[in-house]
Design brief:
The complex is a heterodimer of chains A (313) and B (92). Chain A is an alpha+beta fold and 313 residues long. Chain A has helices spanning 38-56, 64-70, 80-95, 105-110, 156-172, 263-276, 280-286; strands at residues 17-23, 26-32, 75-77, 133-136, 141-144, 176-180, 183-187, 195-202, 211-215, 219-224, 230-232, 235-237, 241-242, 247-248, 253-260, 291-295, 300-303. Chain A has a domain at 57-144: ApbE-like superfamily (T-fold, Orthogonal Bundle), CATH 1.10.3980.10. Chain A has seven helices and 17 strands. In chain B, a hairpin with a 2-residue loop joins strand 1 (7-19) and strand 2. The longest helix of chain B has 4 residues, at 40-43.
Amino acid sequence: MRLGSQMKPAMRASAIGHAEFPIWGGKAIVSASERSGLAAALTQVKRTLGAFDVACSSFREDSELAVLNASAGEPVVVSGLLFAAIREAVRAARLTGGAVDPTVGQALIAHGINPPMNDRPVRIESVPGYEAIGLDDAEHRIRVAVGVRLDLGATAKALAADMAALAASSAAGCGVLVGLCGDIAVAGDPPEEGWTVRVTDDHRHGERAGQTVAIRTGGLATSSVTVRRGAHMGEAVHHLIDPATGQPAGGPWRTVSVTAPSCADANTASTAAIVMGNSARAWLEQHTFPARLVGHDGSVYYTSGWPQTGDEL
Amino acid sequence: MRRVARTRRVAIGGVVATTCGLALFIESSATGHTSGSTTLASAASSSSGSSTSTGSSSDSTSGYNDSSSASFGGGTAPTSSSGQSTAVSGGS
């Protein structure tokens, strides 16, 4: 692996190579700090995303996760990738006091956000919680309690961005940014001015009001309730489930953006902030997460050094 | 425990990342001979095996190594920028 110290000096923005392609209902972005590295970076990113799709998707019946969910109650040995993704999801649940929890699968189906995998009816109720998951690190064996359905949407996409960025940067020999449906991870030496990222409500609409910032390491993730993906009782709903109620999260925030040493942690924190509601600002400050929180009324708050200049709200 | 097949793990990416203290692998798999445990990588493509439980796992997360939790938080704040954005971070 080529490390940062062995790479060429940071390049100007004009030398950046850039590509986009659709992924998981949104957009993937791959940028390389040296245009010549883009092809190698793209290959690694697509390989990583393909592996994640096979292992972790809730939207295909042949994924490893779908088979694990169908085997609830039985200990099952899984691939290293699915095990790592579930372990990351359990870690997120522990660190957020259950605000971000992978056992929301039934609730997501009940709200029409995820597709049903069988004809069984599902009820909307508080989710079982991550303690319903048994993990055996030595054997990569997982047991999910009967009646529990896992969904890794809150963490696996960000983990995929982290892994893809690292693999792509190593292969390309330069700095790489990977954006997956708005979850941003960077690796290697950044461009001289850093990676400039537009922060707004919807990753498909960067022209909307927001803020442009620059990052050099780690990840930047945004969670928002403004994007509607499901429908329940004839009403469009967003996809961020409050595990305590099994309902789409309420609270004062419409959009929260967070930077962290990894995209996985940034996304865990931004999702948790939406779910935590009024207590989110104190929680983010406690963990020294730089964050931008936008209220439903358009008011904006910042934590832990997030820049306050240049914000259009 | 369901008895389906043994997975032959083939590293296609090798060790591609160390994130949050976890050594992560990307694997592909191929179905091999029957053994004593279910492997989802193979079960995902062929899920016709019968099931029995050995009770070798529990519902607790006591085996979970959460040593990486100590590093949660402490991100570097972004800087304000007026340049053309490379990417957009927003809801999905």
